[in-house]
Amino acid sequence: MLLFNFEKIFQLLKVLLNNSLLQITLSRLAHQLVENHLGFEDTVIVGLQPRGVLFSDRIVQLLQQITGNNNISYGRLDITFYRDDLRHGNGIQVPSQTDIAFSVNNKKVILIDDVLHTGRTIRAAMDALIDFGRPKEVELMVLIDRRFSRELPIQPDYVGLSVDTLFEQKVKVNWTTNNELNEVILI
Amino acid sequence: MSLSVKHLLGIKELQTQDIETIFQTADNFKQVLQRPIKKVPALRDTTVANIFFENSTRTRTSFELAEKRLGADTVNFAASSSSVSKGETLIDTVNNILSMKVDMVVMRHSASGAPWFLAQHIDASIINAGDGTNEHPTQGLLDAFSIREKLGSLKGKKVAIIGDIMHSRVAMSNIYCLQKLGAEVVVSGPPTLIPKHIDAMGVQVEYNVKKALQNCDAANVLRIQLERQHKPLFSTLREYALYYGINKSMLDALDKEILIMHPGPINRGVEINSDVADGKHSIILDQVENGVAIRMAVVYLLSGKRELPE
Predict the structure, then answer these.
(1) Residue in B35, B304, B306 nearest the CB of A131
(2) Class of the CATH domain delimited by B11-135+289-303
(3) Which CATH number is A56's domain given?
């Protein structure tokens, strides 16, 4: 009986990217960034709190390995106060830390989040970002692009994997501290 | 995660987790206040009424700034220039303001318990900005937040509250807040200004101010509230300053550095000397700065208690 339940759970969880595929994808995305931004003199990286930061931490680590540049400007942005659904649903949220220790004025900003779905988070992120200054341009990198579910006209510039999903489904990226069992699953 | 209460009436009703949540949120707002654009749009759909039945500069300005920096609309109401002087009751006054589609009320009142009374009769969230001699919760929060900012944590720290404890709502809110965060509280001042049974609240009483200073990590010096003292409780202000006023030589005589706080407005030369208020130990202006962040956090977190129409 117990075994049956496990099988059912495994059927429900669909692995979109397993650990080895995920490493290849991360590496490709990092190389794409280097290709477009080379030395990262005018380019800054901003990861979105809370879950996008787990992804952007790894991208920045790879960028440092590839370019040998340990001074890439990297910040974390919390967008709680900019959400359009603050008082809808699950009650008010306590924000995570924002940590942007550099000016974004005239910089090329790469926003990084793990899953792009309706686009509302990115809309809020752009509003939040612009309160820190006037970037020269803003690009968007996501690990997973849930296609055909956008509610706002927002498209990513760098995509790890595009997937077709139903609205009720959830895409979850699991990161482990030792990077051995990272995976992306569809629930 | 949000607060366990719908109103902020007093620290007494808060859980320790609520205080931690407020501090964590205030950390974020403090950072917002350092930015070139010191404003977030979180409460752009909210209107807050600041209803002050008692005079205030700091608290009202601080609340108003906090609300504006959250993107809320504000209306200010001072009792002296209102229909209260024509005999309108508290509930009528507030209901009239609420019928103009106001979502939250920040209220200061000279009667202890006024916000509790109001909370039973209206639907909007109420934030107590000081009620009589009972509580001044946002001041208690910002004082503890300021100590936490300088000393890291409040657990095991000793905080002295010095001066007019009897008439001070700041003292009450400080005691509740500090104790919930694990700090020890010592109250000090002339016996006539210390309530008789205050030790029942679990605080130490030390009538000798020098000893109280020696045994604390932070001292919160309170204003002598002459407006609430209806009979003389000490002979002259000069005598009070001589025995209980904090001056620089007292702090120099200590074998350690302590933080000096004051909720304002300061009576310079009475409870605190200028050489202390403007000296290196003083974090008085940090308190004022933190006040805006704390009030932003409280207004923001309570705004989530409002039901939105579908």
Answers:
(1) B35
(2) alpha beta
(3) 3.40.50.2020
